[in-house]
Amino acid sequence: MKSPAVVPRLLLLSLCLCPPAAAAAEWSNTEAQLQYGHLDNPYTGRGTDTTILTLQHASGWQYGDNYFFVDFLNDSRGDGFNDKDVYAEWYSNFSLGKITGCDLAVGPFSDFGLIFGYNFAADANVGKVLPGIRLSWEIPAEGAFLNTDITAFIDDSDGDMAPREGDSFMVDFNGAFPFTIGGQDFSIEGHIEYIEGRRIESGGRAKSWIFAQPQFRWDMGKALFDSPKQLFVGIEYQYWRNKQGTDVDESAVQALLVWRF
């Protein structure tokens, strides 16, 4: 049975995932991703084979765009970390260019926005609130984008299953860059984030970390089934310096299968 603290957060996420009909999407992209690789437990230093099923969605609407993903994780060791766990992140960006109706492009930037995010880990009952700003870069290539998000990283945990932490900040670069070689379509997409260290209620500090998750994709659906932009295969490389604020550094390659619908 979920603790009372978990229920409001799940309700908040459900509201974000099901916006009102009045906010009809101008564009929408939903994916199911299957990943498999050898990931580290930062608290034991031991690695284990881990399967991750991800539901990911991005869409644009009249005043900005929304993005969320939900990870369903399970490892093979049963050590209390990533054992049938759920992790989710949601972000809504309010485009100042769309809201004002003005062209705000200046220098290398095409737009600016106000962003609000929420991160939630079910097993540890940890929540983080991330209000901040977005800088959207001018990328001329079709289908490509690059954003820089600068946000606060505010603890919203109850401290009943994991100790509360002090507040911090995050800088995140996220984007996608499609390209074609020899008639085959590929893309490199993902993000890299920096989160500043913070104190831990039980004593000590969580270290600052750098976390990168670039994906390399091949459009297998177009190549083999004449169905472009629906089925992709590739790899996701995960680099995490000071994983979850510990002394463990992770470098892992995961097999990747993506179905877009």
TrEMBL record:
Record bears the keyword Signal: yes
InterPro entries: Channel_Tsx-like (IPR018013), Channel_Tsx-like_sf (IPR036777)
Keyword annotations of the record: Signal
Signal peptide location: 1-24
Database matches in Pfam families: Channel_Tsx
The family this protein is said to belong to: Belongs to the nucleoside-specific channel-forming outer membrane porin (Tsx) (TC 1.B.10) family.
Protein's name in the database: Outer membrane protein OmpK
Organism for this UniProt entry: Microbulbifer halophilus
Lineage: Bacteria, Pseudomonadati, Pseudomonadota, Gammaproteobacteria, Cellvibrionales
